[in-house]
Amino acid sequence: MGLDSRLDENGNPLPAKVYSALQAGNQSDGGYNTNVLMLLHLPAGGGKAVGISIPRDDYVALPGHPDGTSMAKIKEAYGLTLDQKLRQLVNAGGISHADAYQQARAAARQAEVATVSAFLGGVPINHFVEVTMAAFYQVAQAVQPITVCLDEATSDTFSGANFRAGVQQLSASQAVSFVRQRRDNTHPNLDFTDLDRERRQQAFIISLAYKLKQAGTFTNLGTLRSLIDTAKQNIALDSGFNLLSFAGEASKLAGGNLSFTTLPITGFGVRNGQDVNLVNLAQIRAETARLLSGTPAPSSAAAGTSTGSGGKSTGGAGTGSTRAGTTGTTTSTSHGTTGAAASSSAAQGPDAATSTPLQSSGIPCVK
Q1: How many CB atoms sit inside 10 A of residue 233's CB?
Q2: Which of 77, 152, 178 lies closest to 119 in space, CA to CA?
Q3: From CA 90, how far away is CA 214, in angstroms rounded?
Q4: pTM for this predicted structure
Q5: Average pLDDT value for the chain
Q6: 76-92 vs 97-119: helix axis angle to the nearest 10?
Q7: pLDDT of residue 308
Q8: How many Cβ atoms from other residues are within 10 Å of residue 284's Cβ?
Q9: How far is it, in rounded angstroms, from Cα 236 to Cα 231?
Q10: DSSP assignment, residue 94?
Q11: Which candidate, 113, 122, 125, places its Cα nearest to that of 340?
Q12: DSSP 152-208
């Protein structure tokens, strides 16, 4: 879960220099929406892992109806639950505001995980990691520069993005802009959407894992512990999740044993005055079951060559184009097998190309 908050884990403002680097406003901006949602499935007994991005604006049912809301964008389950729980605790009295805030955050995390699980068809989620903007920036600082690749030059004053085409290395501040960009006010023909931003986030994770593997970080216990200690400053995770153990598994994924897919939408719409993503729930659940079972994509998707906002790909299941490059961010995890193989239709919607799997075999080149 990638949280939109511009605050630290205690709800306090970040240092001014961090706000300057983030280029995302200050403590008054953002909020408690989970603007990044990914499910990472690690098959029992090994095998290829799969990452699934859930678009933040998908219009879904909210279990428990937090703050009396039955349907909303999937990202809102967190903030609505936090607001409801915090108000209940404060009104009941007998607890400090700081403790009430932490309990409300814990309830919000549980609600978001439950919402994602229900949306995907009851997929069991064993662990979670919640990452704030500050946490992302701190990790990027510890490992910069990060090598990425872009199909075209692009710039955007809202996120601070200003990138040339091709392979390039980014500073920590530029990395924040890279994963936040969802528009281009210089090249409107690029037609950015939130789905392209999710593709960037997938590409960043792959590039980060590639760099850590190339640098031998996964096998250097001292360096790995230092990186994890940095990451822990502004992240939250469940008590049973061992980051050091997970890092050992992550080293295996960086060599091509991980693919990322964005779940399809059927279009854009307006609900309760808000712009939302429209989805076919049966299609979402069938596609999720297919991905988690490792079943190949239907043969109907195999015709032709797709080139677009999802990165270059060829053939059926497809692979994002990759370049080795040179080196000088909430993820929920699901273990074991889940469900039986299910058929699904090809991805639909305005940005269907973003659902073409992005592979971890090198530095992916994306929009």
Answers
A1: 13
A2: 77
A3: 50
A4: 0.83
A5: 83
A6: 150
A7: 36
A8: 21
A9: 10
A10: S
A11: 122
A12: S-EEETTTTEEE-SEEEEE-HHHHHHHHH----SS-GGG---HHHHHHHHHHHHHHH
Q: Give the C-alpha separation, 15 to 352, whole Å.
A: 40
Answer yes or no: are the C-beta atoms of 343 and 298 closer than 8 Å: yes
Residue 147 predicted with pLDDT over 60: yes
Q: Mean of the pLDDT values across residues 183-201?
A: 86
DSSP code of 64? T
Report d(CA 119, CA 306) in Å as an integer. 28
CB 2 within 8 A of CB 131: yes
Share of the chain above pLDDT 90, in %: 50
Q: How many CB atoms lie within 10 A of CB 122?
A: 11
Q: Are 310 and 356 in contact (CB under 8 A)?
A: yes
Which residues, at least 6 apart from 68, have a Cβ–Cβ distance to it below 8 Å?
none
**Residue of 332, 322, 348, 361 whose CA lies nearest to 130:** 332
CB 128 within 8 A of CB 332: yes
Give residue for tokens 């909303």.
72
